[in-house]
Amino acid sequence: MNFSYQEEELVEVLDKTIDEDLCDLVVFNDDVNTFEHVINILMKVCKHSAEQAEQCTLLIHYKGKCTVKNGSFTELKPMCESILSAGITATVL
User: Fold this and answer.
1) Most buried residue, 3, 31, 46, 69, by most Cβ within 10 Å?
2) Ramachandran angles phi, psi of 7, nearest 5°
3) How far apart, in whole angstroms, are the C-alpha atoms of residue 3 and residue 38?
4) Between the CA atoms of 80, 84, 88 and 90, what dihedral angle is there, to the nearest 10 degrees?
5) pLDDT (tens digit, 9 = 90+) per residue, 61-92?
């Protein structure tokens, strides 16, 4: 048995996990944007299916916000900027 090799491998995996902390892309409700617009943007930017985008939009409307995507900050930041440029309030947490 080679325990030192196994230990090094576990440390590498742990380092990768810590470096890539998961963040949430959260979209907020407003009184300006239509359901159709929000659904289309979620499909375009987040690559949601029509059903997934519709469900997120309903949660946004009734709960005030919804996490529409999880990922690393570097992955979610451009998506957030695209959503913001479409006139929809969003942030990465």
Assistant:
1) 69
2) -65, -45
3) 52
4) 40
5) 999 999 999 999 999 999 999 999 999 999 99
Q: Looking at the DSSP assignment, which residues form a beta bridge with residue 92? A: 25
> What's the CA gap between 65 and 9, in Å, rounded?
39
Give the tens place of pLDDT for each residue, 16-50. 555 568 999 999 999 999 999 999 999 999 999 99
Cα–Cα dist 57/68, whole Å? 9
The DSSP code sequence of 29-76 is: --SSS-HHHHHHHHHHHS---HHHHHHHHHHHHHHSEEEEEEE-HHHH
Residue 92, token pair as written in the block: 């990465």
